[in-house]
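Q: Structure for this?
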Amino acid sequence: MATRRRRTTIAEVAARAGVSPATVSRVMNGRFVGEDTVAERVRAAAEELDYSPSPLARGLALGTTRTVAFVVPDLANPAFQDILSALSKSAARSGYRVLVADSVESPSDELAIATEIRRRCDAIVLCAPRMPESELVGAIEDLKPLVLINRPGTSADAPMLSIDYLTGIHHLAEHLYALGHRRMAYVAGPSTSASDRYRRRGLASFTAEHPDVELVTVTGGVGIDDGQAAAARVRSAGVTAALAFNDLVAIGLVHGLDELGVAVPDDVSVTGFDDIPFARYNSPSITTASVPHEELGVQAWDRMAALVAGKEPGHSVQFQPRLELRGSTAPPR
Amino acid sequence: MATRRRRTTIAEVAARAGVSPATVSRVMNGRFVGEDTVAERVRAAAEELDYSPSPLARGLALGTTRTVAFVVPDLANPAFQDILSALSKSAARSGYRVLVADSVESPSDELAIATEIRRRCDAIVLCAPRMPESELVGAIEDLKPLVLINRPGTSADAPMLSIDYLTGIHHLAEHLYALGHRRMAYVAGPSTSASDRYRRRGLASFTAEHPDVELVTVTGGVGIDDGQAAAARVRSAGVTAALAFNDLVAIGLVHGLDELGVAVPDDVSVTGFDDIPFARYNSPSITTASVPHEELGVQAWDRMAALVAGKEPGHSVQFQPRLELRGSTAPPR
DNA sequence: ACCTTTCGAGAAAGCGGTTTCTCGTGGCAC
DNA sequence: GTGCCACGAGAAACCGCTTTCTCGAAAGGT
């Protein structure tokens, strides 16, 4: 096969321009103060040899890679994709690139993956809902600078962006209650995940306020398949409404119920969470709690940029989901 | 803020173990052949100091970063997200990470972005449908090893994975024809994109076979918004069927037509392309040409792995889309 | 005309590893 | 007892770039 092409180095440019590598470096970085003719010669040589500095060598010397890591549970989830897309675009404007990784194959490796990938770059945006609090706190110093996503209540000292899942699902439940539903099911997410925990708490406070509500929890998951598989469980639970862990589960659930001959929303109302772009186009459209994922990505970069610049990052913020009432919910028969 | 923590270096481990850095390096990489007690001492020292080699320094010395780039027109497009997700998972199994970038903000910079990001890693998976052929061929040597996506017909010497858009859209058109449609619209993609060109060719060969078909082309785009905006144009074109550039456009179009009081598929049939996960859950579900995106990501990694190992990559392949007949198409009124 | 600054640019020391080269030691054969 | 070889591990060069340190020369002051 083709012999791997060797890139031209700073030494070659220096030789060609008849100067030292130090001078080439200075010219390339705009720190040159000497005669214009010299700078011009260097630029010409660089141009002719099609030279551009090795980011690797530069990174080693400078101690900075202009790269940030983005670690999430599952890259296949549209919610994370939206964050990634916004994060990448924002970072690119500052000349930074994003290195990605997901931990879907082995949730227990979240920490190992994070620390490994972190060493390859300057900072990390970490979404690790299943990492135990103790692990996170223990590793925090090695991960800095970092921005956390969705770890409300953590004692880790880092800027954090989160979604108020508790309030969000509470509102969804209230909506169902107002429609007249009294028997509901929660189609749960991974029991080890923090975001699932907050949804359960939100529902707990809801049921505390409404003793006349009967709420059952059924096994769900995080994807469309999981939602579809949960359809049978929801039906046999004998409820008139189901709150799904997220939109994917809701979409799968609606589809699964349809296959079982259960009409949504006529027989059972269904809610999602996230408001992924397709929730509104589903048949029926999904009533959900809307989360500003792009905004999350943008803000993550803002925090990140401040951190790598050694400045004070903005405050941690908790986004309030907005209720999106659509076609998948209606009064019970 | 917190003083940036300095990582322990190989020299410190060496000092602690009472050996030279060379020995530590050998032990860490399993190339050590000396006495076991020495190796044990090194391992202990590394453990105590919580040492792990700097990937950056390692990369410089070894000339390899164990990172590959993935460049696409738009990370927000679910089709690319599916490829990325599969690519990242496959690469991770071999200890590689993926660096991402999109060129959505400035399509003309595709080449600049690709060459810049390429220098940060060992190889690149490039999906650059709008890059002029001459530019691509000119830069090919600098980009190698690379795997191309969707550049059928290019003379660039690199493994390529592509979708047979030409045949795919031809089949979709035939499907509409069989249903009885004779006046159709093509809701186009970006005119500079190669994949749009192939769709046009496919349609050209279709109309050549069916002189009784009238086909008009209307401006479209790549996203849901573009599809929605195209609804008015489709309606005023007076057609009974519309072939959208992709599923996103189709979803937007269906939605837009609905808002205009045009029923799909009763008044107008609509087809998409890609079969993104949500096409089947749309209301109505979208008739489309199914593209195996995850497979594309997996195969991209296979080629990549072969290339970086200096082996012969597998052959270039062209995936044939599979027709998915769903609810958005029906005989004309 | 002499001494002190200032200035331009090269030499060299990192950055943190890997690897080739080298050398001292101990074991074995004769 | 001497010579040779194998072996274990350190010294040093290198990967490609940045930056401090250094120094010679030119400029400026008296």
